[in-house]
Amino acid sequence: MIKRSPFRYFKTSPEVIRLAVMLYIRVPLSLRNVEDLLHERGIDVSHEAVRYWWHRFGPMFAAEIRKRRISGMKSSRWRWHLDEVFVKINGERHYLWRAVDHEGEVLESFVTKTRDKAAALKFLRKAMRKHGRPEVIVTDRLRSYGAALKELGAADLQETGRWTNNRAENSHLPFRRRERAMLRFRRMRSLQKFAAVHASVSNHFNQERSLSTRPNFKLNRAAALAEWRGLFAG
Questions:
Q1: Is there a domain that residue 218 lies in?
Q2: In the chain, N or C terminus with fewer CB closer than 10 Å?
Q3: Contact present, 226 and 7 (Cβ < 8 Å)
Q4: Statement to judge: residues 162 and 93 lie in one domain
Q5: Model pLDDT, residue 234
Q6: Distance CA 212, CA 192 (A)
Q7: Is 68 helix (H, G, I), strand (E, B) or coil?
Q8: pLDDT digits (tens, 9 = 90+) for 85-115
């Protein structure tokens, strides 16, 4: 069976669509900033077109990246870092829960209205269903984690400490920068969608720059960009 291209009904080339989506998700730019950058390259599109492309192709690109990375990556079951951040939606506080592995890969993003045991339990079950049970789970001192892990029979896996969860804290920074550029979110569903897509794209382009030599970093960056340009190109 021949797999049809998702770009088949679009007049704009797939290369331009991929570039626009990458700029909007990866870099803290507004829709109009992306429009201006494309215009500087001689590409005349409106910010509404960029918005439509992001909604249409962003989740598709993220799903393809996750599929490729899961099939080729090493196990993420060694050590997880869990944390949650406050996100305002129409003036109401929500919570974005995130699970990060020992190498900084964002494994799961999950949005809830509460920060209690039920929310933590739902988040942990979702993460473990996708990635299995880790050997160590690093958290802060929020009691919801302990109660949820106890119900899952994994209380002995929990580890807490003052600076042990810096891996998760640092993983929030790219999302926070992106959130400010977007002038926050208006719906819980939009936040969940963007958080999941942003995590996949960040994982794809995250090269651990401080741990690599300059030549290796350039090679890895070029490989990541080539793979992005090849999404749904066949």
A1: yes
A2: N
A3: no
A4: yes
A5: 62
A6: 32
A7: helix
A8: 999 898 899 999 999 988 888 999 999 999 9
Q: 93 and 127 share a domain? A: yes
Residue with tokens 């960029």: 50
Exposure on the CB side of residue 212, measured as CA atoms within 13 A:
12
Number of domains comprising the chain = 2
Return d(Cα 153, Cα 123) in angstroms, integer: 15
Distance, in Å, from the CA atom of 149 to the CA atom of 136, rounded to the nearest integer, reads: 11
State whether 223 and 171 are in the same domain: no
Distance CA 88, CA 180 (A): 11
Q: What integer is the mean pLDDT of 209-216? A: 80
CA 52 and chain centroid, separation: 19
Q: Which domain holds residue 94?
A: 79-186
- For residue 68, report the phi and psi dihedrals to the nearest 5 degrees: -70, -40
Name the band, by pLDDT with cuts 50, 70 and 90, for residue 207.
Answer: confident
Q: Are residues 38 and 132 in the same domain?
A: no
Quick check: is 123 in a domain? Answer: yes
Q: Are 175 and 111 in contact (CB under 8 A)?
A: no
| 198 falls within a domain | no
Q: Mark whether 161 and 109 lie in a shared domain.
A: yes
| Cα separation values, 70 from 32, 51, 107, 127, 220, Å | 34, 28, 10, 14, 18
Residues 103 and 56 in one domain: no
Describe the crossing of helices 47-72 and 188-205 by its angle, rounded to 10 degrees.
Answer: 60
